[in-house]
Structures are given as C-alpha cells and as structure tokens.
Amino acid sequence: EIDLPVKSIVTTDDLVGLDDEQVGLIAREATIFAKLTPLQKSLVIRALKRSDRVVGFLGDGINDAPALAEADVGISVDTATDIAKESADVILLEKSLMVIADSVLMGRTTYGNTMKYIVMAISSNFGNVFSMLVASSWLPFLPMEPIHILTQNLLYDISQTTIPWDTMDKEFLMVPHRWNIRSILRFMVFMGPWSSIFDITTYLFMWFYFGIQSKDDIPGVTLFQTAWFTEGALTQLLIIHIIRSPKIPFVQTIAAKPVIASSIIISVIVLALPYIGVFRDLLTMVELPAVFYGYLVGALGCYFLVTQMAKIMYLRIFHTWF
C-alpha cells in the first residue's frame, strides 16, 4: 500500500544458528522481518546499531518489550501492555505516526539552532581573541577597554536570544545529524580568524589615517577604542546571518523575523551609543567622524564577501556545514 521497495523478507528460520556478524549482514540488506522471536528482534536491532544506524522500534505487546528496550528510540501506544509502555521511550496517545514526524522535524530544528549558537559564539570569540593577540603585540595601548568588551558581548548575546525562533533550511531538515565536537572545533579554527582581518584593517586605518600611535594621545585612544567597538559589534551581528546557513544570506535564505528584528535593534544601539551622553560618558566613548562610517560600510561589505568565499571553501573541503 505504501509502495515500499522490498529487497528481501526474513523470517524466524532465516536467523536460526547465525552469529552476530551474519545477523548484521542480513539485517542491513533485508526490508521486512516477520514472525521473529523476542530475542531475534533484539538481535536484529543490536546488529543495526553496530552498523552505525539509529534504530527505532514500534511495538505494543509483551514480546516487543526486549526490542523496545534495545532500540535507540522505542515507540509504543497508550493501549499497549504495561511492560511495553514501561520499555518504550515514546508513547503515542493517538493512532498517527505524524506525531513522530513532527517531533523529528522539531528535534532537528532545535539541534540546528543550538549548533548555530555554539558555532557563532566560539568562532566569534576565537576571532576576537586572535585580534586581541595581534593588538597586544603591536599597539602601545588597549584597543578596547574591559567595559567595551563586556558591553559588546552583552549586546551580541542579547541579539542571539532570538535564535530559538529561527528557521532551518529544508535541506538540513531532510537528513539526520549527530553531535560532532571535531566539526565544531574545525569550524571555529576555519571561520573564526576571518573577522580578525577586518579588525586589523581597522587598527591600520586608525593608526595611519587618524595618526593614533601613542598611548599619551588620550582623545585619539578613545576614538580608536570607540571605532573598534563599533566595527567589532557590527561584524558580530553580521556573522549571525552568515553562519546560520551555508546559503547566501539575504539572497538564498533569510532569517526569521525575530532574528532580523534583534539584529536591527542591536545595530541601532551600537551606532547610537557614542551619541547618547550618559552612555558615552559611562563607556568612555567619543562621537565618530563621518569618514569612519564610509570605511565601516566598505569593511562590512568586504567582510560579507570574504566570509562567503570562506564558506564555499569550507563546504568543498569538509562537505558539510554543521
């Protein structure tokens, strides 16, 4: 009725006297298992798990209890026997597997948004640390005061609070995903340093164009710190939209409305802070000259293009995003 392509049908007699390796080979090739004993059901599930499969099992009888317990996800119904319900991970309250399908999509969306937050945070922090190391080996003054860093991180974290409401690409939802710490680390190392290029160009712009080269130039140092605060905060907000999908942001994919709204609001706050007296004094900032905003637009545009090229390279090398 569902047009299931059947490779082979395995019954009880086909599994009698076989060792685990033989059962595993049969389990990977067969489509239908019929009239199996409770132990044989468990053997088949165990064999599939050994072949790096994630196995679900649906059952409602006493004979299904061992298999329900052995499966990665045991599914039963509210009219099942008590032992079947106790062995199951999920109990359906209605006759519909669409609940499972909806749960899978929700789970993959939750996983994807969690990964977004993790890779955004670690890649951004990695880039900032790298920029700080460069600054400490060159500049005779702090590129940002501690209060600037704390404020920048606070605003960035606030902008990320809307990520749970973000959507995932359909391609991502169509396949299962597994937690992979190595993937996170290589993402951090590969994608993190790109922002440092534009942090360093900001250093150079302030150093040569404005001539801020001495720690004794207090107004100049304050201008330098305000400029890097603004550039760093806006690149962090831009990276949210760049990293959230392997596609081209704003063209092939667009974030959910809450994510866009939070990015716009935080961007306005970042740009407005140097012009609001109470915050300017509290954060030790100065108003930025118009020429800096021309540089800022160019830097953000170049950053967008460079990170898109980096995404293409990353996908060609590793064949996956996260």
Structure summary, number of beta strands:
5
Query: What is the share of helical residues?
Result: 55-70%
Q: Please trace the helix and strand order, writing H or E for each element.
A: EHHEHEHEHEHHHHHHHHH
Strand order of the largest sheet: 3-4-5
Structural class: mainly alpha
Distance between the termini: 37 Å
Low-confidence stretches: none
Radius of gyration: 28 Å
Largest beta-sheet details: 3 strands, parallel
Strand content: 5-15%
Keywords: Cell membrane, Magnesium, Membrane, Metal-binding, Phosphoprotein, Transmembrane, Transmembrane helix
Pfam families: Cation_ATPase_C (PF00689)
Subcellular location: Cell membrane
Protein name: Cation-transporting P-type ATPase C-terminal domain-containing protein
Topology:
Layout (H helix, E strand, L loop, with lengths): L8 E3 H4 L4 H10 L2 E3 L3 H13 L5 E3 L6 H6 L2 E5 L4 H6 L2 E3 L5 H39 L9 H15 L9 H4 L7 H11 L2 H16 L8 H26 L13 H16 L4 H7 L6 H29 L4
Helix pairs in contact: 2-3, 6-9, 6-10, 6-11, 7-11, 7-12, 10-11, 10-14, 11-12, 11-14
Keywords:
322 residues, mainly alpha, three-stranded parallel beta sheet, 14 helices
Protein architecture, described:
- The protein has helices spanning 12-15, 20-29, 38-50, 65-70, 82-87, 98-136, 146-160, 170-173, 181-191, 194-209, 218-243, 257-272, 277-283, 290-318; strands at 9-11, 32-34, 56-58, 73-77, 90-92.
- The two termini are 37 Å apart.
- It is mainly alpha-helical and 322 residues long.
- β3 (56-58), α4 (65-70) and β4 (73-77) form a beta-alpha-beta unit.
- The protein contains 14 helices and 5 strands.
- The longest helix is centred in the middle third of the chain and has 39 residues, at 98-136.
